[in-house]
Amino acid sequence: MPPSDNALRIAELPAHERPRERLLRLGPAALTTAELVAILLRTGTAGEDAMQLAGRLLREHDGVRGLAGAEVATLRHAPGLGPTRATTVAAAFELGRRAAREQPTLHPIVRGPADIARLLEPELGTLPHEELHLLVMDTRHRVLNASMLYRGSVNAAPGRVAEVFREAVRMNATAIAVAHNHPSGDPAPSRDDVDFTSAVVAAGELLDISVLDHLVFGRDRYVSMRERRLGFG
């Protein structure tokens, strides 16, 4: 998409109104999303400067959430990006997701599905592919470890169910929670999701490890399998 004929290039702006200068003077919160992305890109191309390129990327990905969830392989082939800019953009969004997951306490406590969502939604809510994530907890439901178990559709294969508990057993933990996402944006649990939850709950009973919940994330919303009594007896 070519830039708008009346769009100002960065070089045409007064020096104090350019993105980097505005950030230094006013702080990052004062900048538009396009200005922040332009700073990451640093330079444009022969046909677009960094601001025009940033604006086009945001339009093509339906805004910042879509750009945040784009695969590096997709970004690197976008016109005007290439591997260097693509990895810079991907790294910036990943740092944002990790910052959102960090808590003021060393071991955040899980009291219900909202706490699980607060920890995992920043990452799972934007992914263009399916991932299964795990929280490992102690007797007070304090989170001891959070990890991504695997990419791909959830199923109840014995190897995958065993993988869910491997870290909990190693850490002598007493509770876990799992969560995965639906890239379609619809968090409605599938039959495979229910079967997988049932298998994990059953395995947890054998190991004396409580399965607190299984959350399914869509776009800006989630479903608690425990609240809907899906896979939980």
Explain briefly what this protein structure is:
This protein is an alpha+beta fold and 233 residues long.
What does this structure look like?
This protein is α+β, with helices and mostly antiparallel strands and 233 residues long. The protein has 2 domains: 91 residues, DNA polymerase, domain 1, CATH 1.10.150; 120 residues, 3-Layer(aba) Sandwich (Cytidine Deaminase, domain 2). It is built from 9 helices and 5 strands, in the order H-H-H-H-H-H-H-E-E-H-E-H-E-E. It has a 5-stranded mixed sheet with strand order 2-1-3-4-5, sandwiched between helices. Helix 2 packs across helix 3, helix 6 packs antiparallel against helix 7 and helix 8 crosses helix 9. It is elongated and about 70 Å long. The N and C termini lie far apart (53 Å).
Helix count equals 9
Q: How do the helices and strands follow one another from N- to C-terminus? A: HHHHHHHEEHEHEE
| Named CATH topology of the largest domain | Cytidine Deaminase, domain 2
Under CATH, the homologous superfamily of the largest domain reads Cytidine Deaminase, domain 2
Mean pLDDT: 89
Biggest sheet, in brief? 5 strands, mixed
Give the number of domains: 2
CATH top level label of the largest domain: Alpha Beta
Secondary structure category: alpha+beta
Architecture of the largest domain, according to CATH? 3-Layer(aba) Sandwich
Helix content: 40-55%
- Adjacency order of strands in the biggest sheet: 2-1-3-4-5
Shape: elongated
Strand proportion: 5-15%
Radius of gyration: 21 Å
Q: How many strands in all?
A: 5
Unreliable parts: 1-6
Query: Separation of termini?
Result: 53 Å
